Amino acid sequence: MTPIPVANPGAAYRARKAEIDAAVRRALDSGWYIMGPEVDAFEREFAAFVGSARCVSVGNGTDAIELILRGLGIGPGDAVVTVAHTAVATVTAIDLVGARPLLVDVDPVDFTMDPGHLERTLAAWSGPPVRAIIPVHLYGRPADMDAILGIAARHGIPVIEDCAQAHGATFGGRNVGTLGVAASFSFYPTKNLGALGDGGASVTSDPDLDARMRLLKQYGWKQRYISDIPGLNTRLDEVQAAILRAKLPHLTGDNARRRAIAAALRGNGRVEHPRDAEGHVYHQYVVRSAERDALAAHLHAHGVGTAILYPVPVHLQPGYADRVSLGPGGLPATERAAREILSLPVWPELEAGQVETIAQALRGF
Ligand SMILES: *Cc1c(COP(=O)(O)O)cnc(C)c1O
């Protein structure tokens, strides 16, 4: 028996096949494939969805973070705070602009940035100036933004939200992506809003930052063929924009379905379940167990696919270990999470019978 996959972007396509196929055909027939009407419309529609004034579409979620950092003038000689328990992409973007990543621990229960450790880290830091703080709304759960924004304000440091896993999530009734100076999104196919290829977006309500990001995203061009400033090239294409426009109207319903599946899974089996939060959109449903590997084997034997997001904290990964001054034991809650977490399937197209299979397999552990 093939196990229920832990993610299923193909099912997301099939669920909206007619609308997506029509959108792709429209984009192909238009004869305009880069920075045309689909991209313009998607930027407006996504900004409206997030509740932000502006949206700059880009090639992927890593570029979205890099563009914001560059737009804020952050680079060599600066430090940027984020967490080590995240997609490595968050740290990749900081490294790409030449800034130094300063990594803080996560809350041991919710896995998002620990405000207490953030405060202590800033107080003890004597390296290059900290120019931004990037909380990650990991697994679709908003980080503790009241505490983080308060600390950031006291230190005069801007906050950039990494919303790659949290399209449509809310914190205290407010949309994530509107809480800091800017926010990044990824449209990688398995995200809550996924393209059928790569895509990303940076949103902000600061018109000056928006204007700088628009220049930077395409060679620093204000006018075609003339670079005002040195830039990069990161563009969402028309076909992906058309696909995202077809999928965006379904995002709120899909997130509600993720929450319903999470409610059905919660409480089953002798594992620690994620704490619910009102605005949690369950990009991942992550349980924890001291016997994680046995749990994964048991679930697999009962037809349930799983994944570990993420198995190695960024400060312990070979590619980045020399970029941060932290060794093993440096971030205890992060390192414990990496040993104990397990993602279960929670994608919106799961059928009721499949959800019951997952719940039953949990109970049998
Ligand atoms: C997916 C992801 C990214 C990067 O997105 P890409 O589109 O793959 O570049 C960044 N941060 C987090 C938390 C992610 O989950």
Overview of the molecule:
- This protein has 365 residues and is of the alpha/beta class.
- The protein folds into two domains: 9-248, Aspartate Aminotransferase, domain 2 (3-Layer(aba) Sandwich), CATH 3.40.640.10; 250-363, Aspartate Aminotransferase, domain 1, CATH 3.90.1150.
- The chain is built from 13 helices and 13 strands.
- The protein has helices at 9-15, 17-30, 37-50, 61-71, 89-96, 115-124, 145-155, 207-217, 238-247, 251-265, 292-301, 332-340, 352-363; strands at 54-58, 79-83, 100-104, 130-133, 160-162, 170-171, 174-175, 182-186, 200-204, 221-223, 226-227, 285-288, 341-344.
- A four-stranded mixed β-sheet has the order 1-9-8-5, sandwiched between helices. A three-stranded parallel β-sheet has the order 3-2-4, sandwiched between helices. It has a two-stranded antiparallel ribbon with strand order 6-7.
- A hairpin with a 2-residue loop joins strand 10 and strand 11 (226-227).
- It is globular and about 65 Å long.
- It binds pyridoxal-5'-phosphate (PLP).
- Pyridoxal-5'-phosphate is lined by residues 60-62, 86-87, 89-90, 136, 162, 164-165, 186, 188, 198, 200.
How many DSSP H or I helices?
Answer: 13
C-alpha Rg, in Å?
20 Å
Helix content: 25-40%
- Quickly name the level 1 CATH class of the largest domain: Alpha Beta
CATH architecture of the largest domain: 3-Layer(aba) Sandwich
Order of SSEs: HHHEHEHEHEHEEEEEHEEHHEHHEH
Name the beta content range.
Answer: 5-15%
The total beta strand count reads 13
Bound molecules: pyridoxal-5'-phosphate
CATH homolog superfamily of the largest domain: Type I PLP-dependent aspartate aminotransferase-like (Major domain)
Q: Using the coordinates shown, work out and report the CATH topology of the largest domain.
A: Aspartate Aminotransferase, domain 2
Report strand order across the widest sheet. 1-9-8-5
Mean pLDDT across all residues, rounded? 97
